[in-house]
Amino acid sequence: MKQILSISIVLISLVLMPACRKAQVFQDKGWKITSSPEDETISLSQTELGLVFNQLQMFLRNGEEPVRCSGWEVTAGQGTVLITTEKPQQTQWTIRVSETGIDFSCTDPKGFIQGIAPAGEQRIPCRVASQDNDIMYTQMGFVSATNIHNLFDMKTDFLIRFPVGSRLTRNEQDNRLMNIEVQLQDGEEILLIKDYYTSEVGLRDNQKTTFKPAYTPIPDHFKSAPTGWSSWYCYYMDATAESLTEETDALAGKLKPYGLKYVQLDAAYTRGPQANWLEWNQELFPEGGKVWFKHVIENGLVPGLWLNIYGANYTKPAMADQYPENFYLRNKSGKLVQACCSADSTVVRLDYTNPEVIHKHLKPLFETLVNDWGLGYLKAAGWGTWMDYYEENRDHAFNPDMDSREAYRKGLESVRNIMGDDGYIVGCAMHEIGVGFDFYNGSRSGGDDYANWSGEGHWSGGMQTFFNSLFGAGYLNGICWWSDPDDVMIRDPLTFDEAKTIVSTISLSGQAYIFSDFVAEFSKERLQKFLSSEYNIGWARDYPQLVKPLPPEKLALYQKTMPAMPIKAMDLYPYKTKPACCPEPTSYPKALDLKVNAVSGQYDVVSLYNWTGQDTIKTLDLHKDLGLVPGKAYLAFDFWNTIMLPVNNNTIRESIPKHGAKAIIIRPFLKRPQLLATSRHLTAAYSILELKWDPDELRLSGVSKTVPGDRYDLYFYIPDHVNTGQVTASVGHVEKKLLDDHLLQVSFQGSETTVDWSVQFL
Q1: Domain count of the chain?
Q2: Looking at the domain assignment, is residue 391 inside a domain?
Q3: pLDDT at 33
Q4: Do residues 188 and 47 both lie within one domain?
């Protein structure tokens, strides 16, 4: 049951005389209403939210032109404010306060109100579940749309719900403000929903203990989700120092210039009775783990590690010759039990109700890994199963009275303190969303995926598991943490069309962009040794003929969609599912729509999907599907095919191959030459640092961040009867090519420094 904040108001003053020119303030139940007779406006504030609605004014619609009402006389009584306006005609406006909200009404049916609402980085436009239209929305920058009627305050977990039909548009003078227009309708109120994520969405719906997950805003450590590589879905339990060194070198050369930052090793390194978190398996890492960390850092990348902090090697622990017996949590039979997901049974469960485990094991371990080795990315493994195990065996614990979630979080807190604001911590999917709030920068939001489309012949569900997690838990992304739908993979047997669907989706979602494909070349010896391993090599055992580095055309898909951008959810509800670990939406969206407001402009980037097994015609209604302005002209650019698409009657209609997606950049038509896209990034926002149109000189110019030695393309729309004049760039040689009557391509080689470019039109 949603909790609606009561805002019934007892007004202090009964009559505001017109002769009184001082602002009148009324306060009750955490609310403050200020009436300003000087400029005849009202503001609404709330104790927890601050300013909610400012400069509220009354209007009558006279044909197409609104007329502001003036000549106020304000009278007030308990729960009601009556405003009588004299111009343009005598009209009465009533503000009624109830237990569920504020209701505005007017004696003239043409009456409506306008005002301004704060809508900066921490108060964002959003949609709720009742607005689902089979399209998923995300946002980057200060955006709006015709079908967005709500604002969410990230600091307080309040949702401000304006009536359906309200218009929320960005203030042109200050994009951190939203212009609000509310049509007055019977039964429609402006509501404040308290504890929106906690209670309305239902983060507490599946709690298992006395711990009650509650909304916590995302930590202000990282402005976007991480971009990196993981060893797991390539090498599984046979990740060797040789293979990781080769992959690190290849990643540094081929993808670091495109925004890749992290290189993460998964579980294999603790395999065997002599290996622990610091002394790695000698067969796999003969020189030890610190040497590989050093190699990653020397390549300008950040080393990451899978590590289950809730387990340790019993016979050879990391921080002492032997730990006391009360460091371990035994089962009811008195036996030690293997920690979840670890390489083998040598790693057993620790007892985190014993504070000494934190002080003498966990803290010195991470001080070594972080401060001595240089660990900057931690995948905190274990799926939360330690909590289940503890609940079943708590009678044998050091402190059986401690709640399992409290003990679990104490370990996370210690790691967070040592890794600091610069260290990224990603959790594994677990029982109830929220256990890792405050400490995780992000979390896995579902199960393990697998490098084929459907998971046929494999327990994982393949890349369908990836899509389940991405769509089902997208509502948390950039709000509570950076969601991690598990690793991206695009290698064969995934087709090129399937690969484009995968990279388009992760790029426009803003979620963790961690991929796990082979990038380095294999020597004959390394390949043979890997394929003949006696240990689990997962996918490679099923597809030995496909174990090879990505071909250039697939590698280019990563290069055109990395890094993860500062994109957060706009649909603040689980997509066609319930809030849970490992969500399973009943269907996938027709499209994913990223709304952008950046230096590169204000526009939408849409991934239009075909989830079926055959080529299909798909349509996109720009108004109904995307909330764009009806009747306004738009341009559409097909990013992957670098062509203009026709827009007919506000509709795009395209054939899409099976399992494919068409990535479309949709911009308002400006009746002049305009930038459509760049080759560098699907969002068109990553590389454009400055963009300027000079109407007097008919010149479009900008500054771009490029990849040294890599060709950089700019795509421009040219209206009828406009020609291209001189094209220049600070790197020297520039090529221009007219791809069709309205599409110009400008190309030059990337540089170490930013590139100034200019296109003259005639």
Answers
A1: 3
A2: yes
A3: 82
A4: yes
